[in-house]
C-alpha cells in the first residue's frame, strides 16, 4: 500500500482508521472521503479529503486516478438497524457503492478492503464458535448486503484478479465516533450513559450474548489483513475475527467496578433484538489466526478500563 483511499471516512471505523493509516503511511498518502462535508480537525489533522459519493462511478474513478490510488478501504455503508428501516436505500448504498468500487479497482488495478460482519450469518448458522465456512442465510437487509458483498468481492478476485480482502467484524466499541445505527450500539451508548448519568436503558435483553471488539483491534485487523502475504491466504472475503464475548449485563458488571453506582434497566427494542438473535453468539477466528497471524490485544477488562479513561477525557474536554 502506497496511496490509499478511505470511503465513509467519517463513520465509526473510518474515524480511527484514517489517523492510524496516516501515522503509518504518511498523511499525504491517505485520502479520506465521505459524502459529508467536514472541518479538517474532524478527520484527524492534516491530509487530503474528498467529498465523494461512492454510488457515482465517474466521480469515484476520477478521485482514484487523480490521487494515484492503489488501495481502497471501502467503509461507506448503512449499518444494521438503519438498513432494516430503509432496506431499499441500504441496497443502493451498500451494494451499489461496493459494485462501483470494484469496477474502479478492476480498471485501475487497486486492492480493495471490504468490511463484512457477523450480520452475514443468520438463524440457520451454528450459534457457538461459528466456523469460517458455514451456512450464511441472513434474514436482514444488512446481512444480505454483507453476504452479497463477500461473494461479489470473491468474484472480482477470481474473475478479474482484483486483490479483494475483508474481515467479518463483531460489534465494535469506540470512544471516538458516536453510535451510527448498529444493533450493538448499546455497547458504546452504555459508556456515555455511565459517565454522564450513572444510569442506562438498554435496548437489548440483558442475556444477549455477542462477540465484540474494541476499535484499536478492529483497526489492527483491517490493516493486518491488507498487509498479509497473499500467498498464505486460503480465504479472502471474509475472515472471522473475534476478541471478546459478553452480554449487556456482564458489561454493566464490569463498568460497575469503576463506577459502583451505575444502574441499568432494559426496554427491549423488538427490531434490534430480533437482529441480534439472528446472529452468532461467538465466532471461530482460527483461520485468521493461522493465515495472517490475527491476535487481539484487548479483552473485556482492558477495553472497559481504556474506554472509560479515554471517553471521560473526551467528554470533559481533556482528550
CATH architecture call of the largest domain: 3-Layer(aba) Sandwich
The low-pLDDT segments are: none
Rg over C-alpha atoms, rounded to the nearest angstrom: 19 Å
- Residues in β-strands, percent: 15-25%
The CATH superfamily title of the largest domain: NAD(P)-binding Rossmann-like Domain
Here the CATH topology of the largest domain equals: Rossmann fold
Shape: globular
User: How do the helices and strands follow one another from N- to C-terminus?
Assistant: EHEEHEHHEHEEHEEHEEHEHHH
- Largest sheet report: 7 strands, parallel
> How many beta-strand elements?
12
The number of distinct helices, counting runs of at least 4 residues, comes to: 11
What is the number of independent domains?
2
Structural class: alpha/beta
Q: Please report the distance between the alpha carbons of the first and last residues.
A: 31 Å
Task: Give the overall pLDDT as a whole number.
Answer: 93
* Spatial ordering of strands, largest sheet: 3-2-1-4-5-6-10
Percentage of residues assigned to helices: 40-55%
Query: Mind telling me the CATH class of the largest domain?
Result: Alpha Beta
Amino acid at each position: 500500500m502506497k496511496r490509499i483511499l478511505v470511503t465513509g471516512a467519517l463513520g465509526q471505523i473510518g474515524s480511527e482508521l484514517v489517523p492510524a493509516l496516516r501515522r503509518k503511511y504518511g498523511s499525504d498518502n491517505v485520502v479520506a472521503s465521505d459524502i459529508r462535508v467536514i472541518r479538517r480537525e474532524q478527520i484527524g489533522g492534516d491530509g487530503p479529503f474528498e467529498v465523494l459519493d461512492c454510488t457515482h462511478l465517474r466521480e469515484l474513478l476520477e478521485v482514484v486516478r487523480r490521487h494515484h490510488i492503489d488501495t481502497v478501504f471501502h467503509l461507506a455503508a448503512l449499518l444494521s438497524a438503519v438498513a432494516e428501516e430503509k432496506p431499499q436505500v441500504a441496497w443502493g448504498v451498500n451494494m451499489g457503492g461496493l459494485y462501483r468500487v470494484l469496477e474502479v479497482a478492476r480498471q485501475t488495478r487497486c486492492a480493495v478492503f471490504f468490511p463484512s460482519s457477523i450480520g452475514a450469518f443468520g438463524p440457520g448458522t451454528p450459534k457457538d464458535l461459528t466456523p469460517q465456512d458455514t451456512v450464511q442465510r441472513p434474514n436482514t437487509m444488512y446481512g444480505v448486503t454483507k453476504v452479497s458483498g463477500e461473494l461479489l468481492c470473491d468474484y472480482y478476485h477470481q474473475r478479474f484478479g482484483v486483490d479483494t480482502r475483508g474481515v467479518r467484524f463483531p460489534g465494535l466499541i469506540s470512544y471516538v465516533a458516536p453510535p451510527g445505527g448498529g444493533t450493538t450500539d448499546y455497547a458504546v451508548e452504555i459508556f456515555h450513559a455511565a459517565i454522564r448519568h450513572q444510569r442506562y436503558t438498554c435496548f437489548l435483553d440483558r442475556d444477549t450474548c455477542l462477540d465484540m471488539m474494541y476499535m484499536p483491534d478492529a483497526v489492527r485487523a483491517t490493516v493486518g489483513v491488507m498487509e498479509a502475504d497473499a500467498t498464505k491466504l486460503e480465504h479472502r472475503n471474509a475472515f472471522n475475527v473475534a476478541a471478546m464475548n459478553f452480554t449487556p449485563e456482564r458489561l454493566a458488571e464490569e463498568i460497575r467496578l469503576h463506577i459502583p453506582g451505575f444502574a441499568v434497566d432494559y426496554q427491549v427494542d423488538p427490531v434490534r433484538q430480533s437482529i441480534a438473535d439472528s446472529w452468532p453468539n461467538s465466532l471461530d477466528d482460527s483461520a485468521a489466526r493461522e493465515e495472517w497471524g490475527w491476535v487481539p490485544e484487548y479483552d473485556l477488562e482492558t477495553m472497559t478500563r481504556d474506554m472509560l479513561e479515554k471517553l471521560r477525557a473526551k467528554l470533559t474536554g481533556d482528550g
